[in-house]
Structure formats: structure tokens, C-alpha cells
Amino acid sequence: MKYPVWPRYGSFMQPVVDNRHLTVATLEERPFVIVENTDPSTGVCVRNTVPCRKQTNSSQSSDGLVDPYTKLCCKGFCIDILKKLAKAVKFSYDLYLVTNGKHGKIVRGVWNGMIGEVYYKRADMAIGSLTINEERSEIVDFSVPFVETGISVMVARSNGTVSPSAFLGEPCVPLSFCTFIPCFLQMQIGNTILF
């Protein structure tokens, strides 16, 4: 935060701004970000959670004023990373949940979700389980991925085992007469052509 930043497409470095309070957007997605209500008796966050807010249409506070935000508490894997990052880099943050509950994609020329919050500078950064794709990486910068998804293909389990030679068909199994004949013929033809 105290280092100059060279803009992606500009020719001059941006001046050093030593602002140590960031606005951070997030999105509820268990186990990465888990949202809970504040303690009903005290109104504060407990049990290893951090304060976060969610924009509401209207909610009246105790002093009669309209509060546009609901106070909530956030925890989870990404929140733990945010807390450690804030401690290591020494910054404070204001955490809020995106209003549309989306990761971010372009709809009719406008970005939404967490990507839109960062792109339109309503948030300094976003934290959550975001997938890095070409479209998103052209407009915002990502950190190094900290979770591998391990996406794979799934098939039903069979009751028996499948022989390694099953693809050869019934009569032709490895080391049988019908597999040796084509190999022998191929060697003879190859030797005749080469020599």
C-alpha cells in the first residue's frame, strides 16, 4: 500500500497514497464466507467473526433515523485470509456484502457482483471464491489463487472390475495368437520396405 502503482495501460506511475482504510466487497458462499446475525443482547459480533454490512431498502435504527444497512457478522476461510492480510500489511477495512449476491459478470455492458464493485471503484478490493477467467482478468487484477477447485468427471461405480484388454474384444486378448499375427506381419512388411 505504500508502494507506487504502475497503471496497466498508463504511461505514468500513480502517486503513493498511504491510505490504510479499505472498502472490501464480499459475497456469502459457505465455507468461504459465512454470514451470521449480531448477538441479540449486545448487537456486536462474537465468536471469531468480523462486522460486515448488507444494504437494505430501509431499516429504522433505535434513534429513529433510517439506516440503509443491516449490521451482520462474517466469518469463514476468506475472512480468515482477510484478517491475516490486514494484520500483515497493516490496514483496516469496512466489509460489506454485494447487493445482488453475484460473483460478477457483464450484463448489457455493465459489470455486476464483486467484480463490478471493484471495477466501478465502489470497493477497493473483493474477497471470496472467485473464478479467474479471461473476461474478468482484463478489467481487474487477481491475487495468486489460494484454492484449487479439483473439478473432475464423475461416473457411476460398477459392481465388477474391467479387464485391461476389454477394448480388444473377446477373441483377441494380450499374448494370444490373433495379436501376434498382425505384429509379425507388420514387422515383416516394415523390414521389407526399409531394407
UniProtKB/TrEMBL annotation:
Molecular-function GO terms, alphabetical: ligand-gated monoatomic ion channel activity
Gene Ontology CC annotation, any one: membrane
Entry keyword DNA-binding: no
Gene3D superfamilies: Periplasmic binding protein-like II
Pfam families in the cross-refs: Lig_chan-Glu_bd
Domain Ionotropic glutamate receptor C-terminal, chain residue ranges per copy: 58-191
Location of this chain's protein in the cell: Membrane
SMART domains linked: Lig_chan-Glu_bd, PBPe
Top-rank lineage group of the source organism: Eukaryota
Domain Ionotropic glutamate receptor L-glutamate and glycine-binding: 68-120
SUPFAM superfamilies (alphabetical): Periplasmic binding protein-like II
Keywords of the record: Glycoprotein, Ion channel, Ion transport, Ligand-gated ion channel, Membrane, Phosphoprotein, Receptor, Transmembrane, Transmembrane helix, Transport
Recorded topology in the membrane: Multi-pass membrane protein
InterPro entries from the UniProt entry: Glu/Gly-bd, Ionotropic_Glu_rcpt, Iontro_rcpt_C
Keyword Membrane: yes
The protein's name: Ionotropic glutamate receptor L-glutamate and glycine-binding domain-containing protein
Organism, as annotated: Chloebia gouldiae
